[in-house]
Amino acid sequence: MTYTPPKVLSFEEFITQYGDDTRYELIDGELRDMEPTGPHEAVAGSIAGRIYVEIFNSNFNWLVPKNCLIKPPYAEATALRPDVIVLDKIQLSQEPFWQKEPIICNGSTIKLFAEVVSTNWQDDYARKVEEYAFLNIPEYWIVDFQGLGGLQFIGNPKQPTFTVCQLVNGVYQQQQYRLGDTISSHLLPNLQMKLDEIMPI
Fold it and tell me: Residues in domain Putative restriction endonuclease (predicted)?
């Protein structure tokens, strides 16, 4: 039996072939299927809606795009596709791709990421925690509504968990919330949200 390694894609090849397909992202040249399901998309949509309400009520000059790719400046063959992203409108003028494609290169443009955990939970709890901290993203939410993450991340017994990662001196300080808990966000101080409220039907 011979092993055939997966084809390695460049960032440009990924954009050409999969740039408009929201199922996929690219990590170190490897194509990743994000495996979106109806419940996954429902949770992501609910989170995006609640964030938008907070932006509107607080009169922040931010936006929540429907679709966006992140090209970390230090990674040649990586294109991350967060489930929810909040961008600073003023910083968009510094983005080299934005006028032609929804691609963000500068961490300073990004205020918040939210990832809804699926079967590839290792990326959300490990890889992306490092990636987003390196980009100096102020806040990162890990929404594990199915309790899929490893025991070292969400504890035992596994249960639905909402983790807020706040960047402090270049490292994320993590606070976990369970069903029934009121979630607190440093970035959105007036946010009133519980995990129960965004759970899919």
Answer: 11-194
- pLDDT at residue 2 in the model: 55
For 164-173, write each residue's pLDDT tens digit.
999 999 999 9
Which residue's entry shows tokens 């939210």?
A: 114
Q: 35 φ, ψ to 5°? A: 50, 50
C-alpha 83 chain-centroid distance: 5
pLDDT in tens, 98-149: 999 999 999 999 999 999 998 888 888 988 898 899 999 999 999 999 999 9
| Beta-strand pair 182-183/193-194 | antiparallel
SS (H, E, C) the chain: CCCCCCCCCCHHHHHHHHCCCCCEEEECCEEEECCCCHHHHHHHHHHHHHHHHHHHHHCCCEECCCCCEECCCCCCCCEECCCEEEEEHHHHHHCCCCCCCCEECCHHHEEEEEEECCCCHHHHHHHHHHHHHHCCCCEEEEEECCCCCCHHHHCCCCCCEEEEEEEECCEEEEEEECCCCEECCCCCCCCCEEHHHHCCC
Structural domains in the chain, CATH included, are 11-198 (3.90.1570.10)
Residue from 106, 118, 112, 103 nearest 14 by CA = 103
